[in-house]
Amino acid sequence: MIRLCRSQDVEVINQIINDAATAYKGIIPEDRYQEPYMDVVELQHEINEGVVFWGYVDANDQLVGVMGIQDKGEVSLIRHAYVRTNQRNSGIGSKLLNHIICRREKPILIGTWESAVWAIKFYEKNGFNLASVEEKERLLRKHWNIPERQIQTSVVLHGSKLEN
């Protein structure tokens, strides 16, 4: 079952993010990886900045996957899409993504690490396309607040053609 996450879910959301983000260790640039990958204060800041989380609840009523969406005016950003390590490759990510996509009328952008090939393949399998390098840099600078190093090591995927 998919449901809107609540304020009392913040700790569990944070646990899911940090569990799933271990997949990045040794894959993304060392200067971009840290443990914990995201602390609760940073997560709460993201929520305060408008990231709304949807969660997938298993048969035991446990939150096992999360995906955030952030409205940025003319586009929406998928933010922090993670599934617990022991639940990966079971369709949870696709269910969450489809749930979010069905509720949006504006273009959706997804930023991820260039070296996270599995994530890129996941989004492409779900109908998203890689932006060109020039478009990626423009979109990251316009819609995200990330350091230059992260811009250099990331990609952007989109589900539809965007206006310049």
TrEMBL record:
GO terms for molecular function: acyltransferase activity, transferring groups other than amino-acyl groups. Keywords: Transferase. Gene3D superfamilies: 3.40.630.30. It holds the Pfam family Acetyltransf_7. InterPro entries: Acyl_CoA_acyltransferase, GNAT_dom. Residues 1-147 form the N-acetyltransferase domain. This is GNAT family acetyltransferase. It comes from Paenibacillus crassostreae.
